[in-house]
Amino acid sequence: MTATTPAPTVEEVEPQPRPRPKGSTGRKSPLLTVLVLLTLPYFLLPLYWLVVASTKDNADLFSSFGLWFADFNLVDNLRDVFTAQGGVFWSWIGNTALYAGVAGVGAAFLATAAGYAFAKYSFPAGTLLFSVVLGAIMVPTTALAIPTYLLFAEVDLTNTRWAVILPSLVSPFGVYLMRVYAADAVPTELMEAARVDGAGEMRIFFTVALRLLAPGFITVLLFQLVATWNNYFLPLIMLSTPSKFPLTVGLAQWQSTAAGGSGAQALFSSVITGSLVSIVPLVIAFLYLQKYWQAGLATGGVKG
């Protein structure tokens, strides 16, 4: 009669170190660190100038050194921005948040669903359709603006908020990104187990796959949020009512008025301060969502 050795408990099992990706040494590269430090001023200098210029009045903008402070007039500039033309800046902020928020969430959801379908299902012409998506990535969005305007004009959707939201729901790059991410993030065995338990395909997507694809979803949302927030040409040709303008078109209108000499003394500082205010929501969104974004990139870059 042989004695059996008891199975080790969870506490007795020593955790195994997580394997590193191939080619990773675990050490920082001094060369890459130097390159990052050299390129850092390129990205931070315009932001620094914007902050400094927002504290100046119109006279100091043209008479003082551009990269240093003069008389502090930020509070007065903010008051001028939010009260100019009957407070239309508030409408521009609300419109931009609406366009970017709806387009970001909608495009992220559609890209996630399409990428999941391309990665996990085989269907006729699937390869051809995905090739079309890849080809659409190469087409500049400005090249589609005029055809989109003509199409929307036929159905009387120009000068409406839908004219900005609907085209922004399409993200070919988001579909490609989610297709690559879903291929590894959603195990086929997990889908098979859900089918055995009686779950349908829609339930599998919404209760199983969508949770696993959340980091990629956030990544696409951030990309589309920034793209729609900074979009200028599409709302410029689609909208004609100032109360429906986003920040990009509204501030450009102020800039044109100032550069043309009409109300220049009141608008130069307002344009710059309004530009500073317009980037604050994007900074907040990145700071809040960056942990999900970084997790998505890390998970997609390491394969088991």
UniProtKB/TrEMBL annotation:
Instruction: List the GO terms this entry assigns under cellular component, sorted alphabetically.
Output: plasma membrane
Indicate yes or no for the key word Nucleotidyltransferase: no
Ordered alphabetically, the record's keywords are:
Cell membrane, Membrane, Transmembrane, Transmembrane helix, Transport
Q: Write out the GO biological process terms.
A: transmembrane transport
Which Pfam family, any one of them, does this sequence belong to? BPD_transp_1
Membrane topology listed for this record: Multi-pass membrane protein
Q: What is this protein called?
A: Carbohydrate ABC transporter permease
In its UniProt entry, the species of origin is given as: Pseudokineococcus marinus
